[in-house]
Specification:
By secondary structure, this protein is of the alpha/beta class. The protein contains 13 helices and 13 strands. The strands form 4 sheets. Strands 2-10-9-8-5-3-4 form a 7-stranded mixed β-sheet, sandwiched between helices. Strand 6 and strand 7 form a beta hairpin. Helix 10 runs parallel beside helix 12 and helix 11 crosses helix 12. The relative contact order is 0.16. The site of pyridoxal-5'-phosphate (PLP) has 12 residues, from helix 3.
């Protein structure tokens, strides 16, 4: 019989835009015994997770709970539950994940209207507001932080424009939640999807979401009770039934409410992980956490620029948790990434679509976002680029980053 070796994954320095390194406290939480899904001890943990999510999403929304599945499961759940076939959905695209919103909306039967911006830049919010007034969509779906291009979209006035025109504003904040401020209530976002394996530093496998009464009203109009759980005389829904059972928010919210109406079996170990990850975020403090992300980003950028590398994208809309570097002419980007991984145990990312082979992306997210990792990646990148014969200013990067870290707190930009 074939024998398989013991599992022994290497200890990596993960500087990608996800998945990132996980705090040992989260890994430990994942090793605890299983509880039944209706055990009061477990439902209490579910409730605490909802409470902590409200703080992290900066909202008073009742509905704040994880969807079981990776981040795109949260996106699918929100879109399939809110889009009725034939609804008009406006999607402003400025990178790969805007395209994902289009793809999912189309599968939900939406009439999709697209606004497009060149990759590497974002929209002037006025442009989006004008399109909302012109198109009068039922739903506006957009990305907060585009990990594919390292750009972050400002929301000024977009939420209020959606209220005026009675559109629902749905936002993919998968890459920003827990690393950059996402102000669900203040920006009047109707539904927000977060991710675990990025700035929350929990393994992938859950997608925390939140939504308000405006979204809930639409969900309730379409709500059904699963066939085998229905009691006699249950009324038919007013709207079109949601095409997915697994992602039906109407059924999911019954499971996450005191009714505890059975749906799927909650992913016990992932819930432990998310709860511990959120506890770590709140113990650090949201503002302190955002400042930490900016600080290490600034050190990384100082080092990269001192090396003579040029960054990709409009600096005015740069995401603090992803830094994109133009691959110097004539350099094989994949060979550099492979050497970083094989010789230094460091992983950085490439990009997709039109940016494939054009840029490297370095994440400074969550538990991976620290001084040790920033210095390691700068030192290793310098060595690997010299090895590849690239003309860079040797010996400058680490000194620039160290100088940045040596500055007194009051001199720091954040
Ligand atoms: C990573 C990411 C996703 C997809 O997440 P999965 O967990 O891989 O499903 C969606 N949107 C954005 C902005 C992301 O960065």
């Amino acid at each position: 019989m074939k024998s398989y070796k013991d599992l022994s994954p290497s200890l990596r320095t993960i500087m990608t835009p996800g998945p990132v390194e996980v705090d040992p406290r989260v890994l430990r939480a994942m090793s605890y015994p299983i509880l039944g899904q209706f055990d009061p001890e477990f439902t209490a943990l579910m409730n605490e997770t909802m409470e902590m999510l409200r703080d992290v999403f900066q909202t008073k929304n009742q509905w704040c709970y994880p969807i079981d599945g990776t981040s795109r499961s949260g996106i699918e759940a929100v879109l399939v539950s809110t889009i009725e076939p034939g609804d008009k959905v406006l999607v402003p695209i400025y990178g790969r994940f805007g395209n994902l919103l289009v793809e999912i909306s189309e599968r939900c039967g939406a009439e999709v209207v697209i606004l497009e911006r060149d990759w590497g830049s974002v929209f002037d919010p006025e442009e989006i507001i004008e399109a909302i007034h012109r198109e009068k969509p039922q739903i506006v779906a957009m990305v907060h932080g585009e990990t594919s291009t390292g750009c972050i979209q400002p929301f000024d006035g977009i939420g209020p424009a959606c209220r005026e025109t009675d559109a629902l504003l749905i936002v993919d904040a998968v890459a920003t939640i827990g690393g950059v401020s996402v102000q669900t209530d203040a920006w009047q976002l109707d539904a927000v999807i977060g991710g675990t394996q990025k700035c929350l530093s929990v393994p992938s496998g859950m997608a925390p979401i939140t939504y308000n009464e405006r979204v809930e009203a639409k969900v309730l109009r379409r709500k059904t009770i699963e066939r085998g759980l229905r009691e006699k005389g249950t009324a038919a829904p007013l709207g079109k039934t949601v095409a997915s059972n697994y992602f039906d928010l109407g059924q999911l919210q019954d499971y996450w409410s005191p009714k505890r109406l059975n749906h799927h079996t909650e992913a016990t170990t992932m819930l432990y992980a998310l709860r511990e990850g959120l506890r770590i975020v709140l113990q650090e403090g949201l503002e302190e956490r955002f400042a930490r992300h900016k600080r290490h980003e600034a050190a990384l950028v100082a080092g990269l620029c001192a090396m003579g590398l040029s960054l990709y994208g409009d600096p005015d809309c740069k995401m603090p948790v992803v830094t994109c570097i133009r691959i110097p002419n004539g350099v094989d980007g994949e060979s550099v990434r492979a050497m970083l991984l094989n010789s230094f145990g460091i992983e950085i990312a490439s990009s997709f679509g039109p940016l494939k082979g054009q840029i490297w992306r370095i994440g400074t997210m969550g538990f991976s976002c620290n001084q040790k990792n920033v210095l390691h990646v700068l030192g290793a990148l310098e060595a690997v680029l010299l090895w590849h014969g690239v003309d860079i200013s040797a010996g400058k990067a680490l000194q620039a980053a160290l100088a940045f870290y040596a500055r007194k707190e009051e001199d720091l930009p954040c």
